[in-house]
Amino acid sequence: MEIDPPLRQAYKDLLMHKKKNQPALPAEIVDECELPLIDLRPLILAGGSAEEREKCKTEMARASEEWGFFQVVNHGVSPEILDRMRREQVKAFKQPFDRKKEEDDKFSAGTYRWGTPTATCLNQLAWSEAFHIPMTDVVSSSSFDDVNVSCSSAIEQFATTVADLAQKLAGILAEKYLGRKSTFFQDNCAPSTCYLRMNRYPPCPMPPAAAVFGLMPHTDSDFLTILYQDDQVGGLQLVKDGKCFAVKPNPQALIVNIGDLFQAWSNGVYKSVEHRVVTNPHVERFSTAYFFCPSYDTEIESRCEPSIYRKFSFKEYRQQVQEDVGKLGRKVGLSRFTVNAIYS
Fold this sequence. Notes:
Low-confidence stretches: 23-27, 140-146
Organism: Linum tenue
Pfam family, one: DIOX_N
Order of helices and strands: HHHEEHHEHHEEHHEEEEEEHEEEEH
Distance between the termini: 48 Å
Largest sheet: 8 strands, mixed
Mean pLDDT: 87
Number of strands: 15
CATH topology: Jelly Rolls
Keywords: Iron, Metal-binding, Oxidoreductase
GO molecular function: metal ion binding; oxidoreductase activity
Family: Belongs to the iron/ascorbate-dependent oxidoreductase family.
């Protein structure tokens, strides 16, 4: 049975008129880049000197200011956990398409997603499928079949370990920004308020594949995202200084990027940068992203004056993003929440 979602059939009109509808890519790809690589050994393992720990923290803050992205090694998430997560993810996506659609009955409505239902032109289309799972839904149940029990268990193990890493990284970045320790993230970001997204990017046979996004340009609507990506197949790209860079895969590293909430909380010091995924014409690509989010009623407020952004709740931000995507086909994001926002 067919495992791929019917992307070609659903979007055949957009694909047939791609030359007419597809604008120029938002930035020229100039080179493959190596993201700042940070060794967390002094922070994760015992025995690091105070000087080594401070150097690690400073490198992390600098990367968050200059790139909005960095890689971490010796991060405390074991290869066994990562390998298990990848195996179970592949098994979940290799189920027949009709069966994957039924997964909404196993978790919550909207868990399994594919394509972009609101796309009106090719640059709004995401050539991908995903399981977007609130961590509150990651529970093993005797009513699940073997595939779902095993996958849910792997997700829970992966997410629990990555949640600890996210708390540690967020706390370090808060400390470097404020000049003192803060309990903000411990108080407002619990594992139950976070999300996990398993992604699969099927091969895109429509030439040129680079003109079809696996995931269209966007910023993340959280504090931090921790990404475990395919260590062989590239595709992740980010914008820096107006230029687009292809991120070189590193099999030993997890990728961390700053989200919109951290940019607002840090008053623009830490950067939530635009990124995207481009398709590959021949091979599929997998990734798993952990989104470090607060509770819906958490208020996001810049930590210094004059403030660039007005105070807003995470719920308000999510609702505005969803409204914009529905009406405009794209996310507006933080521009709506500046003190002098011009959007109505």
